[in-house]
Amino acid sequence: MAEIIHCHADRVGCFRPIVESEGPATDAVTGLVRDLFEFDDSRAAAGMTRAEARELVIAGRTADIYSRDVAAH
Q1: 3-state SS of 14-66?
Q2: Exposed site from 12, 34, 38, 61, fewest CB < 10 Å?
Q3: Is 60 left (phi over 0), alpha (psi -120 to 50) or beta?
Q4: Cα distance between residue 29 and residue 43, in whole Å
């Protein structure tokens, strides 16, 4: 899908709602997309880490996951 968008857009970026690492700069999937489409870190973003999401689920605050991801996007 990103390839199709890349053909029709001036630029692309990457947003991952939940990342395994401490942020988009060190996330493996974001890095792969960043390298493939040759964009810098300013066009990569993440909502939260998996650890943060897990803590919110344990606390019964799953709605906070959605609101934080929407706010970060």
Answers
A1: EEEEEECCCCCCCCHHHHHHHHHHCCCHHHEEEEEEHHHHHHHHHCCCHHHHH
A2: 38
A3: left
A4: 14
> pTM for this one?
0.72
pLDDT in tens, 27-49: 888 888 888 888 888 888 888 99
**Crossing angle (nearest 10°) for helices 50-58 and 62-72:** 150
Residues 6+ apart with CB under 8 A from 71: none
The tokens for 3 are 């390839």
CA proximity to 43, closest of 13, 18, 73, 69:
13
**What's residue 73's pLDDT?**
76
**Scanning the structure block, which residue is given the tokens 């066009």?**
43
